[in-house]
Amino acid sequence: MTLAKARELLAAQAAFGGGYNRHGARLILAEVVREHGQGAADRLIAELGLDRVFGMTPGGPSTPAS
User: Residue 55 and residue 51: Cα distance in Å, rounded?
Assistant: First the structure.
């Protein structure tokens, strides 16, 4: 998956919010980590504000913050 496509898909997930969309975003980020590395996923989390929407934190597993 390209980073542009991941950005597009993550923006759609963030627009809807909610638990199912958080799970979808986690799956997309897992694919980004696998193909492009953790740094690319961290940049997407920060760029799209996924920390505010889903409680995801850069620098680790794409899981909600406790």
Answer: 4
State which residues form the domain around 14. Answer: 3-54
Higher-pLDDT residue of 10 and 57 is 10
Does the structure show a pLDDT above 90 at 34?
Answer: yes
63 within some domain:
no
Cα–Cα distance measured from residue 12 to residue 24, given in angstroms and rounded to the nearest whole number:
10
Q: How many domains does the chain have?
A: 1
Burial class (CB in 10 A: 0-12, 13-18, 19+), 10: buried
